Amino acid sequence: MKQFIYHFLGLLLLFTSTTHVAAQEVSDYSRLSDDEYNKIDLPPLSVLFENAKNSPIYEMADVKAVIERKLLRKEKWSFLGFFSLRGSYQYGMFGNESTYTDVALAPYLTYSTQAQNGYTVGAGVSIPLDDLFDLKGRVSRQRLTLRTAELEREVKYDEIKKNIIEMYATATSQIKVLQMRSESLVLANVQYEISEKNFANGTIESTDLAVDKERQSQAREAYEKSKFELTKSLMILEVIARTPIIRK
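Above: the chain sequence. Below: its structure as tokens.
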């Protein structure tokens, strides 16, 4: 029975709530240039924590707490179920038909109508003893159920914040690594350009040029790997924290 009430109140809250849960859109990192990657600035953790309350996981836990709070209010007023009121009202035209006769008159019919109204009012009391003595206990149990739902909501929120912190720390570290590897790539490109000119002038051998080319390729590969890891961390962070990282 309680499971049915959960579903009913949950649907009622979804239809009456003014909030709208939408899928989190992830920023398009493919359009970022290398310079823009180096200028990525993460929002403060406090902003990410607050926005994370819009996540479906948190909202589901919050809806459950709201349902339990409404059920607690219902239990507090459940004593009203011991009393009942009833009433009715009638209004209409009533007809009366009669026959009259005596020894000197032949029988004849008379018919009359008139408007009449009426009403009845009543009250009743029915108090099952098990419900009466368990009234305070039901309220206390519902308070505990509500507290459990609120604690579950906080546990979910702490889990979300923990995930945000992990991804935030990872992304912060990867931003610094990407900046260092970007500098290494710039130096490798400059060195290779110098080697190309020296090779064209005949001052170095082709093997020296090949070595610098290999260094350039390794620097590019390391840079792209760091950019991939950073992009993945930022996209996960956006989904968890419901916050766009790239300012449009």
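Confidence is low (pLDDT under 50) at residues 1-8, 11-21.
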